[in-house]
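[agent] plan:
  1. take the single chain provided in the ticket
  2. run structure prediction with default settings
  3. attach structure tokens to the ticket
  4. add a short note for the reviewer (M.T.)
[agent] executing step 1
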Amino acid sequence: MYKLLHKLFGWDYIQWRNTAGHGIARVFIDHAGRVCYWRYKGINVLDEITDPKNVYWLTCSPLKYFGTEK
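[agent] step 2 finished; step 3 output follows
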């Protein structure tokens, strides 16, 4: 499904994982210019991507958001 949304709208997606769970989320730039994704949108848990190696990039390279590999 995320591949179709990427193709139709150009949205980028990552796969995240932590000790509590895992999932696929859409990447966006917030009003402060941070690269973020909603980990749990239903309960308003927003995560900032500070290190592009902490998530798996599904539809684009982290270079699109970070410019250089960290």
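[agent] step 4 note for reviewer: The longest strand covers residues 22-29.
[agent] ticket updated
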